[in-house]
Design goal:
The protein is mostly helical. It has a 3-stranded mixed β-sheet with strand order 1-2-3. The longest helix has 30 residues. The radius of gyration is 17 Å and the shape is elongated.
Length: about 160
Amino acid sequence: MSSKRMIDVTKASSLLQALQGFPAQIREVARNESPEMPVWQPAPDAWSMTMVLAHLTNCEPHFRARFARIIAAQNPTVPGFGPDEAPPRPLRPVHEALGAFEAERRETLRMIYGFTPTDWDRPAVHLVYGRTTLRGMIELVTRHDLGHMGQIHDLVALWHARHE
């Protein structure tokens, strides 16, 4: 196996592990919190943990649609989306919200695990980020996860700073 191919396989494996482990990371953070913390908003226009979870849940079908478009067409254009298309609603109790996100993420992973190594290199053009590949879109999901994990950690830190 060439060193480039080995790096690609290792990177794909790391991406899949990150995507698979993300819901458990959120569950671990939420596990030790009071019932009030996940619904707390530090400001009227700021998101709570449950709002972040709703947004994450609503993002997953958009991610899958991007992936399907890249598989179905030669060098397709894939749209961006944000909170208007993946809103921080509906609000649910934190463990129910986590369950909904986990179910959506399982569907996304099921789709990704069905891709061949050649599929990962299929090109696309993202309307915001420009030229990319299916791999690049999968990497974008992991970066999206990391950004929202930072948001969740910030919420927890702010909660404890204000309520202890």
